[in-house]
Amino acid sequence: MASYRFIASAIAIVLALSINGSLAARHLLDMTPPPAPALPTIPNLPTATLPPLPSMPTLPKPTAQPPLPNTAPTLPTATQPSLPKPGSLPPLPSLPTTMPNLPKATVPPPLPSLQQPTIPKAALPPLPSLPNTMPAVPKATLPPLPTMPSIPTTMPSIPFLAPPPATPSP
């Protein structure tokens, strides 16, 4: 029931504010605007007089050129040496068809066997003995971890929006 009252009061406030805003806007639109200020006059600027541009110098007239030749000049011809005819060349040497005999490979005699020398064993001193048990470490107590605060699941009631408490009737 309280939520309906809250919604109704919120709608009433919004409507009241929008009506006042609309009336103020209408009032501003109905007013006549103030007269516009007079624009200042801009004085005419004097025109600058420029000196005359220099005149272009006169170029000499081209004289008549000799006519171009109609034919290209002839170039001297170079004489090429003559190549020998195919029948006048000596024959190519022929390749042998059989392979020459190669000498047989001989196996070298086996190497003499060598006896490995014996290396004396080194005697190492015994390792020092380590204690089998570790010394006792005092136990450390840790402080308890802080707990997370719980989030309330119920909304607290706002006094002016909640209905008044019921009074027992006499």
UniProtKB/TrEMBL annotation:
InterPro entries: PELPK1_2. Keywords: Signal. Residues 49-70, 83-94 have a biased composition (Pro residues). Residues 1-24 form the signal peptide. It comes from the Eukaryota. Residues 71-82 have a biased composition (Low complexity). Residues 39-132 are annotated as: Disordered. This is Vegetative cell wall protein gp1-like. It comes from Punica granatum.
